[in-house]
Amino acid sequence: MKILGVELPIFMPVATQGSVKSLSVSELQSCGYKILLSNAYHLYLRPGVDIIQSFGGLADFMSWDGMILTDSGGYQVFSMADLRRVTEDGVEFSSHIDGSRHFLTPEDVINIQLKLKSNIIMPLDEPVAYPCSRTDAEEAVRKTTVWAKRSKDHFFKFFSPGDEKRPLLFGIIQGSVYNDLRERSINEICSIGFDGYAIGGVSVGEEKSLIYEIVDFSASKLPSDKPIYVMGMGTPQDILTCVESGCAMFDCIIPTRYGRTGTAFTWQGKKVLRNSGYKDAAGPIDAQCDCFVCSNYSCAYIRHLFNSSEILGLRLLSFHNVYFYSKLMSRIRESLTGGSFKALKNKISEFYKEG
To answer: In angstroms, rounded to a whole number, what is the distance separating the alpha carbons of residues 335 and 325?
Structure first.
């Protein structure tokens, strides 16, 4: 399966505010990435969508020669429990930057992403925290469906369904840990009809086994001919488990966040390079990796950079991790084509067991 000409499954580095932390777009392109994820909420507040639109859209603004999926910012808004008010029409919230008040409707959120010239657009939805009551989860499903219908109706005021050059519009599934609500959300969102479907409201505090159960259940009910996107999931084990369930799109801040704190992803598991065992390690981070970092720098040198608070250390390790994720997805795609996915999953899972 492909999306916008890109073979699935894929991982999308997170460029929340138009930048993948510490990395340039040329570095991301050298790793083979075609799609980045940005956040409409953050860009709406700063620098503002009109400024970005004046540059020709977000990709031109950040000099990215690729495609962009924008999250609606629903999660960011709904994480402000004390700073937002939800109505049938939309959400009112206080800016985390200056405290200014804003009100956004589902139609506004579509407009923002169209101004950003996003290639894949996510509608406004209502995530819920974990744990939450069944009543709260049911109300979130209801609002998510109402807003999804309004979002699609508004979106197609600008495009015809047969327009091959239009952005893609995804639907988001909610329902918390309640399978019947998940199934209801799937039926309602799929009846509206979207270009792809995202499993939302996971990885918000649940234990991993429960997350995997939710994802597996939801993926089994979603159309197999449309891409399934798991929002905010991104350890190697997460990706392999969710791919096995039929999911094909992933995003997470983990590769760069871990890189900035001294942890590397390798084909033998995670390595914490701040540890004293690496103080005189002459070899690369990963002997099986052919990235620029592993081809030129020793573990000892990178550890020295971290312990000396040199910015280069976190840049090098972030690059290596993002490169590793690109190669991981490439191996997954090859294994799915060649029928060896199970063997690949078992091999990598041995090094990335939870805990």
So the answer is: 15
* Choice among 71, 125, 238, 286 that is catalytic: 71
Cα Rg of the chain (Å, integer)? 20
Is residue 60 annotated as a catalytic residue, yes or no? no
Kindly report, residue by residue over 178-194, the tens digit of the pLDDT.
Answer: 999 999 999 999 999 99
| CB neighbourhood size of 234 (10 A) | 23
Task: Give yes or no for residue 355 having a pLDDT over 60.
Answer: no
Q: Enter the pTM of the model.
A: 0.96
Q: How far is CA 267 from CA 28, 30, 288, 304, 348, in A?
A: 20, 20, 7, 23, 7
The span from the CA of 215 to the CA of 337, in Å, is: 23
Question: Would you say residue 244 has pLDDT above 60?
Answer: yes
Active site residue 163: no
pLDDT of amino acid 85 = 87
DSSP letter for 130, please: S
Question: What is the end-to-end Cα distance of the chain in Å, rounded?
Answer: 33
Model confidence over 1-22: pLDDT tens digits? 999 999 999 999 999 999 999 9
CATH topology for 2-252 is: TIM Barrel (3.20.20)
Q: Where exactly does CATH 3.20.20.105 map onto the chain?
A: 2-252
Q: What's the rounded Cα separation, in Å, for the pair 260 and 171?
A: 33
Q: Which of 225, 251, 280, 286 is catalytic?
A: 251
| List of residues 6+ apart from 297 with CB closer than 8 A | 284, 285, 316
